[in-house]
Amino acid sequence: MRRLTRAAERIQAGDFSARVGALAAGEVGTLAAAFDAMVAAVEEKTVALRDAADDEVRLRSRLEAVVAGMSDALVAGDAIPVASTVGPLRVPLGEPGGTVVLLRDLRPEQKIEQMKSELLSRVGPAAG
User: Fold this and answer.
1) How far is CA 123 from the centre of its chain?
2) pLDDT tens, 3-28?
3) How far apart are CA 47 and CA 41, in angstroms?
4) Are 47 and 21 in contact (CB under 8 A)?
5) 97 phi/psi in degrees, rounded to 5
6) Selection from 44, 27, 35 nearest residue 7 by Cα
7) DSSP secondary structure letter of residue 38
8) Counting CB atoms within 10 angstroms of each CB, which of 16, 64, 71, 81 has the fewest?
């Protein structure tokens, strides 16, 4: 039990290489083997998560470099219906000062139209 406790304490401290090792047969030995198998699985998942995080950092860095090198504006969004309006930005003397771009999510309007259509399709046949 002491070996099991020491291994658990090392793992709690972040040392996933800690193992109990083979113990005498019986319930404690079975517990030690299950503990070692669990720790091996956790260590494997931890390594996989670290690798995935490293990959994400590399990808994010590449994307940031691409965006930073752009001289154009970039807007990215989900696969949502969007209405866009573009107009001049005027400064105090009426001179053009740039451009204003407005993006509006059309999902709420689409949902209302869908609800209206469904209501009319249910009410229409009953009224006729």
Assistant:
1) 42
2) 888 998 998 898 888 888 887 788 88
3) 10
4) no
5) -120, 10
6) 35
7) H
8) 71
